[in-house]
Design brief:
alpha/beta; Oxidized Rhodanese, domain 1; 2 domains; six-stranded mixed β-sheet; 14% strand
């Protein structure tokens, strides 16, 4: 029996080639999976999944917020005493049981030229001397008892007292207002905008000492 050695060798060579090719393929795959490119692709894929998850959370949160807002608006509309859609500053305050009107610098300027109007500056004396409403009298809260007797002759039953201090955040005018209410004065207003707004509007200002 004759054996075909050439055919056997050819088969062996082909098998060795295929085995080496498979080893090369595995080596190439392992090399690729260990490269920065592959790691970058993995991170990008994970980031994409994370972004999708975050987007879903944000959308759900937005839907909840909108639903809650609509529920709140509906409840406000159906309420017996609904809240105003836009904030409206109070027009008056209650001092010692007396309603005192709150005005801005424009209304105060309109009343400035009326003979019955008297402005009372409730700020600190050093600020008063730097600048104040023209003709205003200085009556700060911590000196009201000492200073008021000298001003009392200037007041009459028809006098309109307009108090002011630094601005909306200041309550010194309210403190002096409560004091005056206790003395029987009820015809008063508070310029809530304060001296800064009065001066900024270009209204009459003076920086000399108090009016005698």
């Amino acid at each position: 029996m004759r054996v075909n050695l050439n055919g056997r060798r050819a088969t062996q060579e082909r098998n060795r080639f295929l085995r080496s090719k498979r080893r090369g393929t595995r080596t190439a795959c392992l090399t690729f999976f260990s490269t920065k490119w592959y790691k970058t692709l993995v991170l990008m894929a994970k980031g994409s999944d994370s972004m999708n998850t975050q987007s879903g959370i944000l959308i759900r949160a937005l839907v909840i917020a909108v639903a809650a807002s609509l529920a709140g608006l509906g409840s406000n509309v159906l309420s017996e005493k609904p809240l105003p859609w836009v904030y409206v500053p109070p027009q008056e305050i209650l001092l010692e049981g007396v309603r005192v009107t709150l005005i801005d610098e424009k209304e105060a300027r309109r009343l400035f030229d009326e003979p019955s109007t008297i402005f009372l500056d409730t700020r600190k004396e050093e600020d008063y001397r730097k600048g104040h409403v023209k003709g205003a009298l200085l009556l700060p809260p911590h000196e009201k008892e000492e200073r008021f007797p000298s001003f009392q002759p200037l007041f009459s039953e028809n006098s309109r007292l307009i108090l002011y201090c630094y601005g909306p955040e200041c309550d010194m005018a309210e403190q002096v207002g409560s004091f005056l209410v206790q003395l029987g004065y009820k015809n008063m207003m508070i310029m809530t905008a304060g001296f800064r707004a009065w001066e900024k509007a270009g209204n009459p200002v003076e920086s000399k000492g108090e009016r005698d």
